[in-house]
Specification:
The protein has helices at 3-16, 25-28, 52-65, 117-126, 143-149, 156-159, 162-165, 194-198, 232-245, 257-267, 292-295, 311-322, 324-330, 346-360, 388-401, 426-439, and strands at 21-22, 43-47, 69-72, 88-92, 108-112, 129-130, 166-172, 178-181, 207-214, 216-217, 221-229, 249-256, 279-287, 304-308, 335-340, 365-371, 376-382. The chain is α+β, with helices and mostly antiparallel strands. The model has no long low-confidence stretch (mean pLDDT 96). Bound molecules: flavin-adenine dinucleotide (FAD). The site of flavin-adenine dinucleotide has 37 residues, from strand 3, helix 5 and strand 9.
């Protein structure tokens, strides 16, 4: 640690307490390696403020000393956005754990940035409500990280992404000023909506310290189906049928034969059906009366199906889908891309990707899964070796060529900043750079993320 580093550490210790400034290399390293295994870097120190005032003083101190800062929540992000590099200060928001009372009249709750998705879900449930966003990293992903990445998950089909569920934020600017808009008004068009700008900003504009979130009535009955289908075109027909049959459809995720085989090997599970099939769908409906009948609307076009209504059996069906991420991770460090295309283009996009992988690295293993109802495909290539960079470029271009986005829900981060121009115009990117300069004139907040240096 340099003399300057020592001085900054001492200044930060005076703000947050010495116990919350981490300089020990072994402890720091816990914040320096991400969940994908793809991103790691060095930090100058880790600082863990306990409230918004401490965040403000911390940022002001970093600003004054010109130290680059990267905000970090649960560090479950997939694109290197929260992983430090080049000796950045890690600003960990994990101690911002305030859980507000549920405001029943507004059906909203205000929570600290460090609250995990799971804790938020439990808090909502205790009040007879639901926070309608869910995904596999629920035990670690934080509200701040989810607002910052505009997280999606499998319920986005019915409720939208974090953008639709966020009614306000409190955030701290790099110079220490605090912007608070937590009133949660449904109608409030007085001027530009600054908090809205922060949703999906991946930590490059400001640090989110609290969020006002929308809740929905808890649905009493849920039914989950696992369908096996012949191909993705049939999968889209299933989506069409279910949508027509019921407004209670919440999720339609998919995975395929190769992924299922790997999941079953890893978890020691028996396959769900006696025969193997090219494509599997997990569909979920939620309503006040048992919605399982409605899931039968697609029965005549699927090859095999299993339907569950009790929590344990439903979880067992979801496990086949949710275990894909950890299974892929256990096979090494994959080329991992989260993209979206128009829903109707998923089959042709998948064909593009298969052809690309077969042409460029025929020995690589391709595992595709995702949120089919949102056109959100998670592409995983295992064993791409030296062809990984070429494939990454070709696959992102293929998504853009099909009218899609290079990032559906994981964000741009460090991983994809070089490809932003595939799905955003020169004018849009130049406006983004202007906005970044207004918020962060010194360019010290998450440099190089989203907007390439
Ligand atoms: C098993 C698994 C399944 C997943 N499934 C999904 C899924 O279905 N849908 C989905 O959207 N994502 C998914 N993810 C990705 C990840 O969980 C989300 O991106 C999540 O929103 C990240 O939250 P976090 O607290 O871990 O953020 P981090 O990883 O810590 O940070 C993510 C980004 O947000 C910034 N950031 C963090 N906190 C703040 C803050 N308070 N203020 C400003 N910027 C901040 C960071 O700098 C970084 O750029 C999954 C991850 C895993 C490991």
């Amino acid at each position: 640690v340099s003399v300057d580093g020592d001085r900054l550490a001492a200044r930060l210790a005076a703000i947050v307490g010495a116990a919350h400034v981490v300089t020990d290399p072994a402890l720091k390293s816990l914040y320096e390696h991400d969940a994908t295994g793809r991103f790691s870097g060095s930090s100058r120190l880790v600082v863990r403020p306990g409230n918004v005032e401490e965040v403000a003083e911390t940022l002001a101190a970093c600003s004054r000393s010109g130290a680059a800062v990267v905000p970090q929540g649960g560090h479950t992000g997939m694109v290197g956005g929260g992983t430090p590099r080049d000796g950045e200060v890690v600003l960990s928001l994990g101690r911002l754990q305030a859980l507000g009372e549920i405001d029943r009249a507004a059906s909203q709750v205000t929570v600290g940035a460090g609250v995990t998705l799971e804790r938020l879900q439990l808090q909502a449930a205790a009040g007879g409500l639901d926070f309608p966003l869910d995904h596999g990293a629920r035990s670690a992903a934080t509200v701040g990280g989810m607002v910052a990445t505009d997280a999606g998950g499998h319920l986005a089909l019915r409720y939208g992404t974090m953008r639709a569920l966020t009614a306000g934020v409190e955030a701290v600017l790099i110079d220490g000023r605090i912007v608070t808009r937590l009133g949660g008004l449904l109608k409030d068009n007085a001027g530009l909506d600054l908090p809205e700008l922060l949703i999906g900003s991946e930590g490059i504009l400001a640090v989110i310290t609290r969020a006002r979130l929308r809740l929905v009535p808890a649905r009493r009955r849920r039914a989950t189906a696992l369908f096996a289908v012949a191909d993705l075109d049939t999968a889209l027909a299933v989506l069409d049928r279910l949508r027509a049959a019921t407004p209670s459809l919440e999720a339609l995720d998919y995975f395929e034969e190769t992924g299922l085989r790997r999941v079953c090997e890893r978890l020691g599970l028996a396959p769900p059906f006696s025969r193997s099939h090219p494509v599997y769908l997990v569909a979920e409906c939620a309503a006040d009366v048992d919605p399982s009948e409605q899931l039968l609307a697609a029965a005549d076009i699927v090859e095999e199906s299993a339907i569950a209504t009790d929590a344990a059996a439903r979880k067992a069906l979801w496990r086949f889908r949710e275990a894909h991420n950890e299974t892929v991770r256990s096979l090494g460090v994959p080329l991992k891309l989260d993209v979206s295309v128009p829903v109707g283009a998923v089959p042709v996009f998948e064909r593009d990707v298969r052809t690309l992988v077969e042409d460029v690295e025929p020995d690589a293993e391709l595992i595709l899964y995702g949120h089919l109802g949102d056109g959100n495909v998670h592409v995983n290539v295992i064993g791409a070796g030296e062809a990984a960079d070429t494939l990454e470029d070709l696959i992102l271009r293929a998504a853009a060529d099909r009218g899609g986005s290079i990032s559906a829900e994981h964000g741009v981060g460090l991983a994809k900043s070089s490809w932003l121009d595939l799905c955003r115009s020169e004018t849009e990117i130049s406006l983004m750079r202007d906005i970044k300069r207004v918020f962060d004139p010194g360019g010290i907040l998450s440099p190089g993320r989203v907007l390439r240096e």
